[in-house]
């Protein structure tokens, strides 16, 4: 018969780890300590999680040895062991092997009205309960460097946490807080995108999806062509778009002189950043010529407006763009494509083409030819047979130049229209 020896049992006034060793190995159990007459401390467990067959040991201290102290289970008095230490009295209660019917509230009470309580939960299965997790996170760009995704869980036995990043890599999370089966895990300085968190406690696995949107104050670009005023920006999905106009020569410093009209919400293409859209919307030039104009956007973060621009007479703009030299326009195209990132380049290139009146509505295609020749036929807004003179020549010249610069932007169906 194996004989057990008690290892490392010393009197303490806090939780004590009690260990026994025999020929079969070593096993430890915690004696949970509570002290009456003082506020509940972090070291005093408000909840104890156990599996069937484990032991439970409770100790209660009162600083007046003349005051009777007792343990109660669900308001039923328990028998336990009493010890004295100088002016203090200790009352112990223990269960060698717990089962589910031992779950409930255990309260230590003294006759002078002081008490401390803990909730014991005995469960067959492993436990993971998510206490705090924001599944849709939005932060400002300036906060990103110091920001951490985090999850707080109640788990038993001790859990492990992995984060699956937007590019599919698995990152094991370090535990930043562990007190009485409450665990906090963090992932700091994350990139925007969709994440999955995997929490495992022995045989139990829980997964949750969450997203991180990193946003910033929208930066607007407002351009005017022959037919319309174009507003461009990157933003999270807008809730409202609008235009503000102030007629000239009115005093536009007076907010009462500005009139706001709604813009049309539509499907906007994704930008290169998660949860950010390429926003492009228009106002007919004839509605705003000889006005100061602002475009505005409202999203989940607030409302924003561009700096005002003055829209000149559309007739004047027609003559100016008609006589621009096509080599200058091609130079602008090459400059944009050489210095801007792909998604920004796409927006600016299409804006330039709209400025020239070459395109009607396209804003986001893989290559220019996919817009100009969908299904092998010229886009109906690409060519306007009724147009005569320099503008028609300019359109054809620009198409020829684009085809010569990069063959991938043209199909054979374009070339006959450019001859």
Descriptive account of the structure:
α3 runs antiparallel to α4 (342-355). This protein folds into four domains: 5-122, Immunoglobulins (Immunoglobulin-like, Sandwich); 127-215, Immunoglobulin-like, CATH 2.60.40.10; 221-314, Immunoglobulin-like (Sandwich); 323-418, no CATH class. The protein has seven helices and 28 strands. With 419 residues, it is an alpha+beta fold. The strands form six sheets. The protein has a six-stranded mixed β-sheet, with no helix packed on it. It has a five-stranded mixed β-sheet with strand order 4-11-10-6-7, with no helix packed on it. Strands 13-20-19-15-16 form a five-stranded mixed β-sheet, with no helix packed on it. It has helices at 285-288, 314-322, 326-339, 342-355, 368-372, 390-405, 415-418, and strands at 5-7, 16-22, 25-35, 47-50, 56-62, 69-73, 76-77, 81-85, 88-95, 104-110, 115-122, 127-132, 136-140, 148-156, 160-164, 170-172, 175-179, 182-188, 193-201, 204-215, 221-224, 228-235, 240-247, 259-262, 277-284, 291-299, 302-305, 309-311.
């Amino acid at each position: 018969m194996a004989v057990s020896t008690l290892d490392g049992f010393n009197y303490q006034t806090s939780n004590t780890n009690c260990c026994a060793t025999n020929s079969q190995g070593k096993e430890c159990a915690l004696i949970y300590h509570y002290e009456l007459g003082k506020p509940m401390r972090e070291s005093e467990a408000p909840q104890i999680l156990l599996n069937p067959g484990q032991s439970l040991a409770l100790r209660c201290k009162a600083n007046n040895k003349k005051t009777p102290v007792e343990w109660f289970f669900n308001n039923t008095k328990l028998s336990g062991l009493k010890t004295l230490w100088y002016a203090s009295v200790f009352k112990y209660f223990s269960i060698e092997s717990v089962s589910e019917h031992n779950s409930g509230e255990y309260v230590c009470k003294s006759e002078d009205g002081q008490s401390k309580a803990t909730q014991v939960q005995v469960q067959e299965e492993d436990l993971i309960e998510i206490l705090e997790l924001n599944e849709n996170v939005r932060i400002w760009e300036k906060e990103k460097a110091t920001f951490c995704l985090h999850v707080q869980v109640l788990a038993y036995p001790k859990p492990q946490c992995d984060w699956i990043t937007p590019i599919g890599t698995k990152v094991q999370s370090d535990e930043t807080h562990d007190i009485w089966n409450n665990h906090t895990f963090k992932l700091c300085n994350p990139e925007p995108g969709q994440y999955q968190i995997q929490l495992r406690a022995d045989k139990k696995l829980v997964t949750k999806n969450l997203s991180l949107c990193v946003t910033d104050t929208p930066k607007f670009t407002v351009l005017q062509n022959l037919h319309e005023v174009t507003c461009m920006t990157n933003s999270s999905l807008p809730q409202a778009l609008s235009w503000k106009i102030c007629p000239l020569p009115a005093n536009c410093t007076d907010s009462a002189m500005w009139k706001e009209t709604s813009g049309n919400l539509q499907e906007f293409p994704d930008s290169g950043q998660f949860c950010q859209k390429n926003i492009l919307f228009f106002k007919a030039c004839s509605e705003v010529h000889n006005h100061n104009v602002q475009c505005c956007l409202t999203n989940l973060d607030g409302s924003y407006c561009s700096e005002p621009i003055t829209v000149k007479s559309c007739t004047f703009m027609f003559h100016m763009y008609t006589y621009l030299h096509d080599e200058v326009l091609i130079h602008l195209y090459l400059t944009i494509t050489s210095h801007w990132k792909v998604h920004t380049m796409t927006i600016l290139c299409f804006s330039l083409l709209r400025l020239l009146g070459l395109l009607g509505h396209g804003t986001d295609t893989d290559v220019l030819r996919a817009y100009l020749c969908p299904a092998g036929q010229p886009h109906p807004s690409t060519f306007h047979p009724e147009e005569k003179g320099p503008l028609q020549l300019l359109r054809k010249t620009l198409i020829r130049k684009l085809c010569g610069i990069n063959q991938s932007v043209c199909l054979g169906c374009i070339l006959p229209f450019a001859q």
